[in-house]
């Protein structure tokens, strides 16, 4: 894919527009320029909102069968151009081409599930006569679209996480304005192209590229925005909550995901699953395995196998079919991870492998004996770093897993169903994977966390509930 010297346009209420002020989009592999995108202004954002007000009325009137058709046609377009989408994901972000292809496949699935769920936005009859004096009343409730949704998306899944907001919004009959991550806007623009090709009416969708510091507050605070759907960091999420005002909020704010490995676990399976879960997309994954608690009896064996498999990870060119892991999103982030690891080692942690950086590349890193008073122990590393902990029993592992501000997903490896259910009941997370790592998700399941990991749930059916409101209808009949 050649660099586009003229730069890209952004998608403003159905029109592709240019601006004089530009943002460079660079390949994190070597910081080379891929292309540029316009830097949208506050005026652009306000225009997008005004047009979305019209778009919301248009979207609400689109028949369900046509919403289904539009979503399926968008999915078909992406399927027909799958390699182009995958290459863009790999070039502008951190994923290898094999990881990027999987994201494109998931995006197609997300849109298809959105189409299916569009036909299932249903209400219920209400037995009003359950209350004395209401014997002559009958009625029901149905769900209606909320209006305009603002979606703010991260860099690590630049296509599918956008689809997780756009798909349900369109299925529900809303208008949506997307502000993609500044460093990875191209995949989101390609998604807009798919919807344009699919015949989505103008004004229903905007994808505006720009700096969050300049246009974010306008999207978050504007009274005509009825919902903010945000995926990103905890600190940014807290700021949005302070500013948003009276509107719906959906947030997925990351994690510091734990996995428990008990004495009876299938170790080969546990190692393979957790290594992949730790280093997928260079560890820049909200579900990524960051902490592994291993029972005493199998700790040494697990540690040896885990380190050995980590050392076999092939780091390099993202577009190579043989590469397992690419760079982090930029050198600044790689330096941050390097500093966190160095801090842990300085405070007594033992470095088992990795710990080296070359530009934006940070080698897959495994540590043990990480003390509680360092950043790695409590914060989301969002990089290719995993820590191993020896524990005497399941209860200790659960207590240590819960000793954290986050609670997105967790994993446990055991053959004992009683122990599995004990962990299910006591672990403070939004999802727990049995005999799998924390890094497992299908796009149809409810997805979200507790504590500092967010508010509400994504996953198409569940996002649709957030993006609609129930309206009660009651008929008073003559006696």
UniProtKB/TrEMBL annotation:
Span of the signal peptide: none
InterPro entries: Ald_DH/histidinol_DH (IPR016161), Ald_DH_C (IPR016163), Ald_DH_N (IPR016162), Aldehyde_DH_dom (IPR015590), ALDH-related_metabolic_enz (IPR051020)
Residue ranges of the TM segments: none
Aldehyde dehydrogenase domain location: 16-473
Keywords: Oxidoreductase
Family to which the UniProt record says this protein belongs: Belongs to the aldehyde dehydrogenase family.
Protein name, UniProt field: Aldehyde dehydrogenase family protein
Lineage of origin: Bacteria, Bacillati, Bacillota, Bacilli, Bacillales
